[in-house]
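Lay summary. Proteins are chains of building blocks that fold into shapes, and those shapes determine what they do. In this project we predict the shape from the chain. Here is one chain we studied, written as its sequence of building blocks.
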Amino acid sequence: MNPYDARTVGALRASGYQTTSVRSELRRNLIARLRDGSPLFPGIVGYDETVVPQIINALLSRHDFILLGLRGQAKSRILRQLQELLDPAIPILAGSEVNDDPFSPISRFGRLLLEDAGDEAPIEWISQDQRYIEKLATPDVTIADMIGDLDPIRAARGGHVLADELTIHFGMLPRANRGVFAINELPDLAGRIQVGLFNVLQEGDVQIKGYPVRLPLDVLMVFTANPEDYTARGKIITPLKDRIGAEIRTHYPHHVDTGVEITRQQAWVDRAGLPILVPSLVSEVVERVAFLARRDKRIDQRSGVSQRMPITVLEAVVSNAERRSLRLGEEEACPRISDIYAALPSITGKLELEYEGELQGAEKIAEELISRAALETFEDRSHHADPDPMLDSVVEYFEEGGALQLASDAAATAVVQGFETVPGLLEAVEACQLADTSGSPGAVAAACELVLEALVGEKRVTRTGDAYARARKERKRPPSGLEGMDGFQGLG
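And here is the predicted shape, written in a compact code that computers can read:
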């Protein structure tokens, strides 16, 4: 008989089903995946050689563990994928609030049901997602929320004395019995509540206030925490840390390519109504902004620069290109470097600044990060070529009085026509193979803007758009002809 067809305790016993502890179940299914090469954490990029092996070790050891890392490092996403390592379904006594094992219930409700109905006691099957319980730790969480408390209304309705176990209202932790219980931002949990977790981690049971009962829970406990929270908002008390089996450090992507892959995976880029073409160099510049911000001394590195920043920036960049293309009636939307500047609000809101950074302002710092990111991207992509002769022609054009003014909402074809007037610019793009989509005016425009932004970063030419922006901030009359424009000119 297939155990999943069983609907009573007797039928389940006849099928040969045997209960397994949740830690042994996770270990068994993890071993099976390791043997057949199945992915353990689909969609989690950049942790294959660092974080994932440590999680595997913790699960093989049947340890509780904590993921410790700055914001935006996929900690919660990893924990939520642990449910995929559980069995597809397990049986519980029907109506049990604590997922009672049909063969060995821990609650009074379950024991009475077996005493009254015996092998005819009904069972039901619960799925993986019902066995993963997650709680965001906040200072107002109580022991009653986590463990349980007396329920006088239940006592009155059932005619029970208050000392009866049937009057217990179980908290989230007992309800996670035979599953995984995750607590996000553990340091935010008040110290007295953290003390309530001691028994669960060490002895595997909870003691509910006011009742002389012990519930031997079968639960894997996992946590997340931000190192900044140890001093900013709270801390993990030492006895609790001592009971957690493994402390696993997460991190931001080590390489730009890894960051680009994560961002493209998470960002909402494919949109209905208009084809979206995102040149790889635009994605790279966006990602390098985050990498540079994580090294910038003007930015608080204790808070970190979340991976959510390049994700939201790329989405804003695409939206600006989409808006332009819809207004101009273009057949596709192709972001350019100038669209990254239009996404400044998605950058500035995610930067925690040090004192020096506060003096300069988030917007100025963000603009500098974009310029440096463009320069790094160009240098990385042009190392195989020798674009200097073409770049010298571009600089010479501007130094001799040439200027390039482009409306911020100009069509890609018009922008390319403007770039064609600058000697050596298109040749530099071709020599460095920057336009990775052949024949697309948008990709060519993006590549030309990258070259010019790199020259700005090297201080060989200047952005006239910066002059207009500074004048507008200082409430002065902007340079003639620059309003609504973005352009480049010589340093003189």
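What the prediction tells us: The chain has two domains: 3-249, 256-489.
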